[in-house]
Hints:
This protein has one helix and no strands. With about 45 residues, it is mainly alpha-helical.
Amino acid sequence: MLLLLMLLMLLLLMLLKLLLLKLLLLLLKLLLLKLLLLKLKLLKT
């Protein structure tokens, strides 16, 4: 029983890490997009 609980906890932790990684990647992409837009605006003016 204890072993099962530990396995479940490990799985949950791994899932959380994956989610966090995906969120971080999304944030990075958004930041890059904003930077690109800023550069485009600067180039146009």
